[in-house]
């Protein structure tokens, strides 16, 4: 990256919030929350601002806590639901036990098993129950915004929704913890590579440069704390979150093969979206969220340490450190057809697609 690109990255000014969509678009806000008493006041405050910006009549809220919290999260959520009811905003909160954790009888070091993926898939799907209960839902004019238990500013979500001039099938931000990108497990680029935890995150030159220029980057899968996506694939439960334990995604030789024999329910969600033609999936590198209040500003403005800058220059200039693959020349094309090791893989292994 030359000095001009560095200047662009670190001197980008906050943009005016865009005017989003037409009035007939509905935003289905879903979230799985547990034990977030330490951030919940901030969470609810920003959620209220987001609802106000999107329009109270344009928003539906579905939150699943599942009776799992050990702190006062449920009490706060009950107050939030009362607020929504007073505003006559459609909502459903699940605050009692409806899904049992299949790992509950396992000792702690065995809990990172495929059962974790099975459990999380069920929890995420539970957030869609309300969607299917509402009569005459217009799936074609609906955007789902799915939150983890993150610290965010409502402006972050507006900017996420405006990614690529609102032309996307799915879009994620970046979830950061202590200068590091957290959700590298789920995120896969178009070459089949995972991302690195440190700036500029991508292994190939195209992705790195797009991060530096504040441009959205096309990816195969992501989650990253918050994801917005078209609701139409959910119609008639065409796709849902799921788990599968007898194969893994391939990773090319740049990355070390993964030792685990399972993948995230979020990765499978993208595999299934892709297999039915929803291929326009992006990361917006300027949307940064975190899991702690203290780290949020650091995540949002991301001032790299000397170590991270040094790592970047090693990646960029050293051929032997990492050979950077180029994306296809027609990467920007709206009609892009992903040609990578993943293409044949999902065609050969796709399952449970109705």
3D architecture notes:
The chain has a single domain, classed as Spore Coat Polysaccharide Biosynthesis Protein SpsA, Chain A, CATH 3.90.550.10. The longest helix is centred in the N-terminal third of the chain and has 15 residues, at about 40-55. Strand 1 (about 25-30), helix 2 and strand 2 (about 60-65) form a beta-alpha-beta unit. The chain is α/β, with parallel strands linked by helices. About 30% of the residues lie in helices and about 15% in strands. Helix 2 crosses helix 6. Strands 1, 2, 3, 4, 5, 6, 7, 8, 9 and 10 form a 10-stranded mixed beta sheet that branches. It contains 11 helices and 10 strands. Mean pLDDT is about 80; it is low at about 1-15, about 245-260 and about 320-354.
- Sheet having the most strands: 10 strands, mixed
| Overall shape | globular
Global mean pLDDT:
79
Secondary-structure element series: HEHEHEHHEHEEEHEEHEHHH
Number of domains: 1
Please name the CATH topology: Spore Coat Polysaccharide Biosynthesis Protein SpsA, Chain A
Distance between the termini: 45 Å
State which percent range the strand residues make up.
15-25%
Assigned CATH class:
Alpha Beta
Write out the CATH superfamily name. Answer: Spore Coat Polysaccharide Biosynthesis Protein SpsA, Chain A
Range of helix content: 25-40%
Parts with pLDDT < 50 across at least 5 consecutive residues: 1-14, 247-262, 318-354
Helix and strand composition category:
alpha/beta
Give the second-level CATH assignment, the architecture. Alpha-Beta Complex
What's the gyration radius in Å?
A: 20 Å
Separate helix tally = 11
């Amino acid at each position: 990256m030359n000095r001009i690109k560095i200047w662009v990255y670190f001197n980008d000014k906050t943009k005016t919030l865009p005017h989003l969509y037409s009035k007939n678009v509905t935003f289905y806000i879903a979230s799985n929350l547990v034990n977030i008493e330490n951030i919940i006041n901030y969470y609810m405050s920003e959620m209220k601002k987001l609802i106000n910006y999107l329009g109270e009549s344009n928003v539906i809220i579905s939150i699943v806590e599942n009776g799992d919290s050990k702190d006062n999260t449920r009490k706060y959520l009950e107050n939030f639901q009362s607020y929504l009811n007073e505003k006559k905003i459609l909502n459903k909160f699940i605050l009692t036990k409806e899904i049992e954790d299949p790992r509950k009888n396992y000792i702690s070091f065995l809990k990172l098993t495929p059962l974790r993926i099975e459990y999380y898939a069920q929890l995420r799907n539970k957030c869609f129950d309300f969607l299917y209960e509402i009569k005459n839902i217009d799936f074609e004019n609906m955007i789902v915004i799915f939150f983890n238990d993150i610290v965010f500013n409502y402006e972050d979500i507006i900017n996420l929704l405006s990614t690529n001039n609102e032309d996307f099938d799915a879009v994620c931000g970046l979830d950061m913890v202590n200068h590091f990108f957290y959700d590298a497990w789920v995120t896969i680029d178009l070459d089949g590579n995972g991302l690195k935890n440190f700036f500029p995150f991508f292994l190939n030159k195209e992705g790195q440069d797009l991060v530096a220029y504040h441009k959205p980057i096309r990816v195969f899968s992501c989650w990253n704390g918050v994801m917005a996506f078209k609701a139409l694939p959910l119609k008639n439960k065409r796709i849902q979150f799921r788990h599968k334990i007898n194969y893994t995604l391939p990773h090319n030789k740049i990355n070390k093969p993964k030792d685990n024999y399972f993948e995230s329910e979020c990765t499978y969600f993208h595999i299934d979206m892709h297999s039915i033609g929803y291929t326009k999936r992006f990361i917006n590198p300027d949307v940064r969220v975190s899991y702690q209040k203290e780290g949020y500003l650091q995540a949002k403005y991301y001032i790299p340490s000397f170590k991270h800058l040094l790592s970047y220059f090693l990646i960029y200039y050293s051929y032997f450190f990492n050979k950077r693959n180029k994306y296809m020349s027609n990467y920007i094309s709206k009609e892009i057809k992903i040609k990578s090791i993943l293409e044949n893989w999902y065609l050969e292994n796709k399952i449970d697609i109705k």
